[in-house]
Amino acid sequence: xxNFKELATKYKxxxxxxxxxxxxxxxxxxxxxxxxxxSILAYAVKANSNLSVVRHFAKLGAGADCVSIGEVRRAFLAxxxxxKIIFSGVGKNDDEIREAIQKxxxxxxxxxxxxxxxxxxxxxxxxAVSRISIRVNPNIDxxxxxYISTGLHDNKFGVDLESAKRMYIKANNSAFLDPVGIHFxxxxxxxxxxxxxxxxxxxxDLVRSLANIKIELKxxxxxGGLGVVYKDEVTIKPYDYxxxxxxxxxxxxxxxxxxxxxxxxxxxxxxxxxxxYEKQNGEKKFVVVDGAMNDLIRPSLYNAYHRIxxxxxxxxxxxxxxxxxPVCESGDFLAKNYELPELEHNDLLVVHSAGAxxxxxxxxxxxxxxxxxxxVESGVDRMIRKRETFEDLIAPELEFLEK
Length: 403
Ligand code: LLP
Fold this sequence. Notes:
This protein is of the alpha/beta class and 403 residues long. The protein folds into two domains: 4-15 and 267-385, Beta Barrel (Lyase, Ornithine Decarboxylase, Chain A, domain 1); 88-260, Alanine racemase (TIM Barrel, Alpha-Beta Barrel). The chain has twelve helices and 17 strands. The strands form two sheets. Strands 1, 10, 11, 12, 13, 14, 15, 16 and 17 form a nine-stranded mixed sheet that branches. The longest helix is centred in the middle third of the chain and has 20 residues, at 193-212. The chain starts with a helix and ends in a 5-residue tail after the last helix.
């Protein structure tokens, strides 16, 4: 059990705390589910890109799924080997493509015909061969929040099957491209297996039809997306997930790549915030805390639910409150109509499931420094990111300030 009160006193609030042992357990469970095949779990760095978190997964043997050259550099710094690094994203610029080719990562995941052209041109300039995969958009509804759905033609991601086939033929005929993989990712926080299974079948069929024309791929990249429990969701079991995927690959000799983000980190993370005040406007009750939407934007952006636990001595009966932060926006809330007991100044609130898309989506809005991050491993806590100071925030502007 993590002693949140002690950590809040030691490191102050707002504060992110990550349970590294939980991350290991999640990693091992998922990796084990794929033991029947060669597999790489390429951690989706965007979920929580703290260098020490990425290093933790590197030590467990993970690869990295990156969506900017910044993330690729983080993966290298954290010790992920080049041959386990993937670079995806719909809008890579020339400099990013060049660096990815020079760094000899596993492959660049190409998301459009135009991009394939750029990658080929840049590889030619470098007199190199770029390994690529193509992100296929299987046009399947993943049944998740529309903002995190990515596998429909309405979404900007990937290419349709016909274009993919054309692109593989082009790549195969190029001296500067080596098509090694195929990729799909239909959305995040998925709790239904069927859309994943259906997508895998469509993509595996494409692999077979490519093999028929002598384009032999090596990597079958199923993206990320495994959902987790925030409230009472019924989630997909890793074993059922792997069996559904592996069932579509019969007769194919492919290494499976999976890009989990949320599954590995969401429920390993806690956001700690302290009560500043209680207030009431008419009938409406508010608890004002020191953490805000700039620290954890998921409730404001997606109306996402995070369980919130109050650590207080004044265990009185509960009432419904909105938990709000100091940012000057009505959308600045961590929860609405949430049952909490009456709270006092400095009581601690623990926001659960905050390890994925928490700190990483933070900002400095309202000139608020981002919080510190703490790792807890085998009962020992350590800082993995300092709290940002006012000086940190203004440093990039200060030299331009007119005297
Ligand atoms: N691979 C690709 C290509 C992705 O686009 C993503 C996430 C992942 C892997 C990792 O997905 P995961 O296993 O974490 O579901 N900010 C949103 C989530 C955005 C996900 C974007 N892509 C949220 O807070 O819910």
